[in-house]
Specification:
The chain is α/β, with parallel strands linked by helices. It contains nine helices and 14 strands. It has three domains: 71 residues, Winged helix-like DNA-binding domain superfamily/Winged helix DNA-binding domain (Arc Repressor Mutant, subunit A, Orthogonal Bundle); 96 residues, Periplasmic binding protein-like II (D-Maltodextrin-Binding Protein, domain 2, 3-Layer(aba) Sandwich); 99 residues, D-Maltodextrin-Binding Protein, domain 2 (3-Layer(aba) Sandwich). It is elongated. It holds the Pfam family LysR_substrate.
Length: 296
């Protein structure tokens, strides 16, 4: 394999990961026809069919899957070594891609990213808001941010935020009409606002008191996959909502919402930044990591 073929291999990996010539071409910044031609040339050179093409999608063949398994760690290693070369620059530089939840992006990441990018103009940061868990190696992220209880295995994890609590909340008018639940079991008598998870399942409300854990499936007229809508519905008096305490703090302070079952909401592990143990952090990433590191 000649050095000039490395470009074709990188193009193949992009097609295999995106499973689309359109998305891969946009990602690489080249035309679809040029990408298609490069793939045909690579397959002819190897004497193997690497991709199965249909009118709707593209998928690697068995040979293509084996090539992906070979290329991905090799190209990741090249990326890491190229990133390490920035140590020779006077100023840290490069792009940092992070997958995160919306709340973590707003409350933990953005204050640090705001300051870091102002102080270091050669650093670019991309934050991708995703509710579900993401394979940061397969999706070529530098790091992910998730709650401590949801961390992936075989990762270096750094705590970047305080412990969190959940809050069960409702409007004063709702509780004036329906009364307040004293235990999680009392929620069966109340209208609750459900959260639809990315997986499609309904979130089972989790409570803990004196080491006793409870999971409660609640009922109500409303189900949303958006926290802002859940808050709006709770303020409007449609029932009780359960969400991270920080999201309801302002409305609780204003008196628009009232908290219940507080003694059943124990603190839990907050946000961690995690990244592959085999990846050598770039100077830019190390700066971000140091800025995010939580100190009690």
């Amino acid at each position: 394999m000649r050095r000039e073929d490395l470009g074709s291999l990188a193009m193949f990996l992009a097609v295999a990961e995106e499973q689309s010539f359109t998305r891969a071409a946009a990602k690489l910044g080249i035309s679809q026809s040029a990408l298609s031609h490069a793939m045909r040339r690579l397959e002819a050179k190897l004497g193997l069919r690497l991709l199965t093409r249909t009118t709707r999608s593209v998928a690697p063949t068995e040979a293509g899957e084996r090539l992906v398994e070979t290329l991905r760690p090799a190209l990741d290693d090249i990326d890491a070594k190229l990133a390490a070369l920035t140590e020779l620059r006077e100023r840290p530089a490069g792009t940092i891609r992070i997958t995160t939840s919306e709340l973590a992006a707003q409350t933990v990441l953005w204050p640090v990213v705001n300051r870091l990018t102002a102080e270091h103009p050669d650093i670019q940061v991309e934050l991708n808001i995703e509710s579900g868990l993401t394979d940061i190696v397969a999706e070529r992220y530098d790091a992910g941010v998730r709650l401590g209880e949801r961390l992936e295995k075989d990762m270096i994890a750094v705590r970047i935020g305080p412990r969190l609590r959940m809050a069960a909340v409702g409007s004063p008018a709702y509780f004036a009409q329906h009364g307040r639940p004293l235990t999680p079991h009392d929620l069966a008598k109340h209208s609750c606002i459900n959260l639809r998870m990315v997986s499609g399942s309904i979130y089972a409300w989790e409570f803990e008191k004196d080491g006793r854990e409870l999971k409660v499936k609640v009922e109500g007229q409303l189900t949303f996959n958006n926290i802002e809508l859940i808050l709006a519905a709770a303020v409007a008096g449609h029932g009780i909502a359960l969400l991270v305490e920080d999201r309801a703090a302002a409305l609780l302070a204003e008196g628009a919402l009232v908290r219940v079952l507080e003694d059943w909401c124990e603190p839990f592990d907050g946000y961690y930044l995690y990244y592959p143990s085999r990846r050598q952090p770039s100077p830019a990433f190390s700066l971000l990591l140091e800025g995010l590191r939580f100190r009690d």
